[in-house]
Structures are given as C-alpha cells and as structure tokens.
C-alpha cells in the first residue's frame, strides 16, 4: 500500500453520509479515517495528523464548532464543514472560527471531490504566497505582491488602496470562503452597520475593473449571504 496518499478524517455521525464519502474518496485514492463523535475526532486529528478534515456540525456529544475551536488552537489543517440547509448561520460562524469551506447536504460525488481538491490546494498555495517576489495567477489575472500591481491579460488594473487590499487578501486565501466579517475585520479593523454594504460596493468596483460582467465568476465567486471565494485555477 502506498503511504503517500492524502489522509482525510471524516467526522460525521450519520453512517450513510460517512460511507458515501468514504467510498467516493477511497475510489479516488485518498486514505479515509472516520469518527462519529466530536471528542473522538479531536483525538484522531491530533494522533493521525490528517491532511484534511470533513466535519459535520451537528454531532451527538459536542457541537462541531467546538472541534474547530480546539483543533485550530494548534493546527492549520483545512476543515470543510458538512452543513445542512437548516444550519445556514452555523455555517458562517464555523467559517469565522477557521473552517476553510463548506458543502451543503445533500451533495454529489463531483462537488465532494472538487471541494476536497480545492481545500488540499489551499495549503500548498498559501505556503508559496508568503515567499518574497511571489506572484499570484488565476486565469489571466496576475497580482504582483511586491509591486502591489494587478494586471489582466497583461494590462494594468488601477485599483484603489482598499480595493487592492481586498483582492490581495482573497488571493492569499484561494479556495477558502472568506466571510464578510472576516474580510471586514482584516481590511478595516472593525465592523459596523454599514460595513457589509461598503465591502459589497468595493467588490462590485473590483469586479468591474477586472472586466467581469454581473454573474461572471471568473476570478471571485460571490457566496451569497456568506462572503467571497477567490478561485485558484
Ligand atoms: Ca449530524
């Protein structure tokens, strides 16, 4: 058996969902570990150091958010939350606590694999982004961090300081959903009633300057009511 497979920990108490995820991931050459209780998941995360965690928020012994709090205090492992439609607000607070992404139940094979691969890429990408002289590319968009310069198809894009800071922040968390409040806190330091509107206006201007028409998700996906996600390929 090859031992350089990605190791994925699934923390979920619904056996049907667990076995579906396990079957799909194993068929695609991932190694899968499972836990049906939050406490067991936390212990396995520490002892097995998985490359990725898929986490159900509604676990019988403890809230999934407690898992994120405890694991995030010592580990940057990507966490993808498995959320039911009735848990919309839980999903946002899970992202704010440090989860990387979420999948809404029920989900299919293609979506599961896409989210897993994106979350695994985040780790690799973020290691590169901090290197001096590093440049971010997605499609024909290039961000030169040292020069604070953005180009699309080789043509310079003239962003304001704030617009650049937002785009740069999203690009350093590609594949991860950044919630409104996480972006606002990192860009403006604090949040008030007008903050989300202000962020949305800035994002609309950024998208226009990048040449995106409404509904065009070329570089940044608008996660309605949650936040934004920068694509990484
Ligand atoms: Ca559950």
Plain-language structure description:
The protein is of the alpha/beta class. The protein is built from eight helices and twelve strands. The strands form three sheets. The protein has a five-stranded parallel beta sheet with strand order 2-1-3-4-5, with helices on both faces. The protein has a four-stranded antiparallel beta sheet with strand order 6-7-8-9, covered by helices on one side. The longest helix is centred in the middle third of the chain and has 21 residues. The mean pLDDT is 89. The structure holds calcium ion.
* Tally of DSSP β-strands: 12
Give the spatial strand order of the biggest sheet. Answer: 2-1-3-4-5
Determine the structural class based on helices, strands and strand pairing.
alpha/beta
Largest sheet: 5 strands, parallel
- The pLDDT mean sits at 89
Poorly predicted segments: none
Radius of gyration: 18 Å
- Helix tally equals 8
Report strand %: 15-25%
Distinct small molecules bound, one entry per kind: calcium ion
Overall spatial form: globular
């Amino acid at each position: 058996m090859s031992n350089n497979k990605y190791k994925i920990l699934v923390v979920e108490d619904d056996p049907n969902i667990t076995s579906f995820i396990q079957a799909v991931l194993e068929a695609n050459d991932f190694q899968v570990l499972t836990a049906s209780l939050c406490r067991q998941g936390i212990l396995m995360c520490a002892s097995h150091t998985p490359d990725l965690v898929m986490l159900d928020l509604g676990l019988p012994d403890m809230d999934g958010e407690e898992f994120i709090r405890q694991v995030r205090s010592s580990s940057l492992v990507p966490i993808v939350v498995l959320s039911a439609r009735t848990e919309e607000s839980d999903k946002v607070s899970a992202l704010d606590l440090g989860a990387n992404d979420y999948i809404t139940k029920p989900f299919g094979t293609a979506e599961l694999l896409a989210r897993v691969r994106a979350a695994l890429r985040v780790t690799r990408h973020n290691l590169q982004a901090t290197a001096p002289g590093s440049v971010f590319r997605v499609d024909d968009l290039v961000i030169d961090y040292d020069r604070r310069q953005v180009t699309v198809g080789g043509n310079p894009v003239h962003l304001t300081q704030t617009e650049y800071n937002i785009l740069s922040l999203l690009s350093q968390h590609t594949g991860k959903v950044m919630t409104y409040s996480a972006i606002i806190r990192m860009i403006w330091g604090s949040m008030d009633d007008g903050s989300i509107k202000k962020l949305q206006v800035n994002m609309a201007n950024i998208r226009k300057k990048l040449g995106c028409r409404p509904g065009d998700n070329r570089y940044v996906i608008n996660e309605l009511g949650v936040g934004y996600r920068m694509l990484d390929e």
